[in-house]
Amino acid sequence: MPADPRPDQDRAPREAAASSGAAVPDLVTGAPAAPGAVEVRRSTRRRRTVSAYREGERTIVLIPARMSKAEERRWVTVMLDKLATQESKRQLGDEELTTRAAHLSDRYFEGRARPASVRWVTNQNTRWGSCTPAEGSIRLSHRLRGMPEYVVDYVLLHELAHLLVPGHGPRFWELLEAYPRTERARGYLEGVVAAERLPHPPADDGE
After folding, report:
1. How far apart are CA 6 and CA 14, in angstroms?
2. pTM for the full model?
3. How many angstroms separate the CA atoms of 44 and 42, rounded?
4. In this structure, is the dihedral angle defined by the CA atoms of residues 29, 155, 54 and 102, taken in order, positive or negative?
5. What 3-state class would DSSP assign to 202?
6. Would you say 147 and 126 are in contact if contact means Cβ atoms under 8 Å apart?
7. Are 66 and 74 in contact (CB under 8 A)?
8. What does R_g of the chain's alpha carbons equal in angstroms?
9. Looking at residue 87, what is its pLDDT?
């Protein structure tokens, strides 16, 4: 077994038919994944490459047949993050952001959170998002653009939850428990903030 499989998305669709599949547990909670959420397919034709692609609501991850379970879990995480980053770089516009918010509300809050408007703003440099419940308006910081999709979804859900519970009490966090990547997304954002606070090296003056 090669020690370092390489991501290779271009070959994914061509090998799907020759592979066998199995659903994997949720990578955040450890609970069984929802049917069709993530499917790992092992292929004897693969020697070193790992691929991933979307197939409707499912994510298909193709790996070499001889890969261990530990390597499988690691590469599923890597490829999910890779796909999420690529998708987020498509940079949803305000209309798509509103549609995304409605989808998330339906999925996690039974459609109870219905914002009047959802839009990107460039004047939020200390907050990732904000919500004005009285107006039903949600604003996301432009700094989220380019971050993984699950991070943007978490911030959207955070603000949607404020339409139902204004503060940050127990009821608020109970709502966000429905989203399986809450802790992971919070950790990502905390890492971004920590990195921004690191001292910057002095500029190279050419000497």
Report:
1. 17
2. 0.57
3. 7
4. positive
5. coil
6. no
7. no
8. 20
9. 67
